Amino acid sequence: VQLQASGGGLVQAGESLRLSCAASITSNNARAWYHQAPGKRRALVARINPDGSTTYADSVRGRFTISRDNTKNTFDLQMNKLKPEDSGVYYCAIEPRYWGQGTLVTVSS
To answer: Mean pLDDT over residues 79-108, rounded?
Structure first.
């Protein structure tokens, strides 16, 4: 099973990035994005459930949007109004057991 995350990069505060995760499997499990800031534990950013319902961390609600394309086996994280504290490595996951390799996001102030 492979999850390939892409779309990270260096942006300025207030700008946007779109992360994408391509999965090599078809699964009915929830898809999620996690964030790991330097020196901190990995934490859930957003989750989209099989029924399409979504969950967001308080820190990103209203700025980030998770979506999926079942025809392409991909799911994305649109990140708007980025802040320096959003910097870190973002991991995509098909919960509970499959993880991507991470993509680095750096937001400068």
So the answer is: 96
